[in-house]
What does this fold into?
Amino acid sequence: MLARPNRLTRGADYRQAVRRGTRCGGPRLIISVLVSTDARPPRFGFIISKQVGTAVVRNTVRRRLKAVCAEFVDMVPEGTDVVIRALPASATAEFSSLRADVARCLNKRFADAVSL
It folds into this structure.
């Protein structure tokens, strides 16, 4: 699970990452990455709307994404904010496909920082 310092909690941080960050999308996820020069651990945030499904489905998707991000937290540079928006197709996706989507986008942004 993601530790407290590795989570985005403020709405302003979410907005800044989504508006100013670079985007990578796919059929299940849209990932926004904003790199800053701050000396702090990387932070991850999740946006899962009601279009994804019921509360049980949304929480399942959120838990899977948190587990994926916990794997990659050491590989993402300091000062990075990552916001993951789950699309409705993520409700039926397997863990391995969600992991592959996140790894592809992080790898695209950080050039071989994340291995599949």
Remarks:
- Strands lie at 22-25, 29-35, 43-48, 80-86.
- The two ends are 19 Å apart (CA to CA).
- Residues 56 and 62 are 10 Å apart (CA to CA).
